[in-house]
Amino acid sequence: MKTYFIHSVSILISFIWLILINHTVNPISLKGPHFLKFYLILIFGFYASILALKLSKETISTTTFYFMISIFCLGVIKLTKGILLGKSVGFLILILMMECIVGMVFMNHYFKSKIN
After folding, report:
1. Which has the closest alpha carbon to 70: 33, 48, 30, 99?
2. Roughly how many angstroms between the first and final C-alpha of the chain, as a whole number?
3. Of 44, 53, 105, 112, whose CB is crowded by the most CB atoms within 10 A?
């Protein structure tokens, strides 16, 4: 229950920013730079919540991976939309690649600690 709350806070903060600054609740409808700001707020908030879980000696559960996958899927959806519309998506590709690398490191650490 604690992991749901901690991860929900980071998502809530990014959606509050989305509503207050861009006056929408649909992040897919945002233009490129605005979406990148939203996505970076979402990612940094999520990884800060993982760090908070680690500092409070909580275990990283499968809930964390579900949140991580859903955030990644949001980026892939926006990437697909950008490619179909012929927009430049270089920064989003770099962010998604970094997110894959960080996700693989977390999964590797998670499975090592799960086995031991």
Report:
1. 99
2. 24
3. 53
